[in-house]
Amino acid sequence: MPSERATDTTPFAAMDVLERASELEGVVHMEVGEPDFRPPEAAAEAAVAALQAGDDDYTTSRGTASLREAISDYYAETYGVDVSTERIVVTPGSSPALLLALLSTVDPGEEVVLTDPYYACYPNFVRQADGTITTVELDPADGYEPSVDAYEQVVDEDTAAMLLNSPANPTGAVTSGETISELVDLAEQTDTMVVSDEVYHGLAFDAEEHTVLEYTDDAFVLDGVSKRYGMTGWRLGWAVCPPAYVEAVNRISQNVLICAPPFVQAGAEAAIREGNDQLAEHREAYRERRDLLLEAAERWGFDVGYTPEGAYYLLLDVSDLGDAFDVADVFLEEAGVAMTPGPDFGDGASDYLRASFARSTEDVREAIERIDELLATTTT
Ligand SMILES: Cc1ncc(COP(=O)(O)O)c(C=O)c1O
After folding, report:
1. Whose CA is nearest to atom 5 of ligand 1?
2. Could you tell me if the CB of 263 is within 6 A of ligand 1?
3. Strands (E), the chain
4. Is 166 in the pocket of ligand 1 (CB under 6 A)?
5. How many whole angstroms from its chain centre is CA 240?
6. How far apart are the CA of 199 and the centre of ligand 1, in A?
7. CB 3.0–4.6 Å: which of 132, 332, 342, 374 could bond 349 by disulfide?
8. Ligand 1 lined by 116 (C-beta under 6 Å)
9. Ligand 1 atom nearest to CA at 311
């Protein structure tokens, strides 16, 4: 009999939709956050060269010194913050980094505060750490900006961690520096750990993004190469740890992960060092796709009610058409457009579909045409 923890772990709806969509021909995939842009060429070159040179042994579980230096330089160059390489632990994707952060911070029964909507996997991560979940509702009328007042109502000395995410999945909202700074102050006053998922950094096209590290060293920051460099399948991420937690994180990593593959680390290092110039072009493309979808949503009569400023997601209120799961089914089966039903992302997204515009602009246009046609035939 599987454990309670395993039984309580819910499936990830986006992956379920992907599974069904993969059985159908010619589907436009707007259900997953899989960037259409290729990784920087330097990444594949460095990974192949590393493999050919026989670089295929374990590395230390912290990651290679040169990758951690590249990550540290990235923070210095991008945000002007000093992150010593000793605070960085490299992991196979940012997802394991998040798990390590929570396992190192949360004791059984302790509270973790999430926003709602949230990234669908967050509650399951908290469950793996045997934590309890409290949510703070976000409002599209505020552009899904977290309200510090609302946090003050729930965060206290008994809170173990607050989990932040900007640019955010599933909303595409970018949290202001002021809000982050005020949440960091609240966390300091209540001895709460800030865990900041920054995996969409580099992809804010309409707002300035801020790392929590600009305001404190006493926080976990999780990031990786998946989204920024289009390297989802490489499985490479990292945790920047608060100084007092590095050894705890590393001990767990030594036991359960051992290390990220060395040639993947070599490729990621090249991406981080050489892959940033192309990001401006990518952001421009994401902005164009967002605008196409916003315009179409208005035509379809789906309320959006805010303007996503980063990442590549948009929440569409489809409550006028029916239940979000049913609408997602009709879009997929009748129009060949896959989107993720919102309920997976929290009660605050239950009337919505999440559309990802990470696929090509051509695909986005095609999806819009198909939904135009579908809605024209179903409403006449
Ligand atoms: C908010 C957020 N965090 C983390 C991840 C996982 O990223 P990785 O591929 O680095 O494990 C995703 C993937 O979609 C995400 O949307």
Report:
1. 95
2. no
3. 28-29, 88-91, 111-116, 132-137, 159-165, 193-197, 219-224, 237-240, 313-317, 337-338, 340-341, 352-356
4. no
5. 16
6. 6
7. 342
8. no
9. 16
Structure tokens at 155: 């965060």
pLDDT tens for the chain, residues 1 to 380: 999 999 999 888 778 888 888 899 999 999 988 899 999 999 999 999 999 999 999 999 999 999 999 999 999 999 999 999 999 999 999 999 999 999 999 999 999 999 999 999 999 999 999 999 999 999 999 999 999 999 999 999 999 999 999 999 999 999 999 999 999 999 999 999 999 999 999 999 999 999 999 999 999 999 999 999 999 999 999 999 999 999 999 999 999 999 999 999 999 999 999 999 999 999 999 999 999 999 999 999 888 899 999 999 999 999 999 999 999 999 999 999 999 999 999 999 999 999 999 999 999 999 999 999 999 987 54
Rounded to the nearest 10°, the torsion over CA 98, 281, 215, 188 is -40
Across 297-324, b (16+ Cβ under 10 Å) vs e yields beebebbbebebbbbbbbbbbbeebeeb
Q: Which ligand 1 atom lies nearest to the CA of residue 237?
A: 10
> The tokens of 32 are what?
């997953």
Cβ of 169 below 6 Å from ligand 1: yes
Atom of ligand 1 nearest to the CA of 197: 3
Question: Which residue type does 234 have?
Answer: W
Which domains does the chain show, CATH number per domain? Answer: 4-38+278-379 (3.90.1150.10), 42-274 (3.40.640.10)
For residue 342, give the DSSP letter. G
Distance CA 367, CA 348 (A): 25
Nearest atom in ligand 1 to the alpha carbon of residue 165 is: 1
* Ligand 1: centre distance to CA 94 (Å): 6
With the most atoms of ligand 1 within 8 angstroms of its CB, the residue from 12, 119, 174, 196 to mutate is: 119
Q: How many helices (H) does the chain have, and how many strands (E)?
A: 13, 12
Ligand 1 atom 6, closest CA: 95
Report residue 255 as tokens: 């036991």
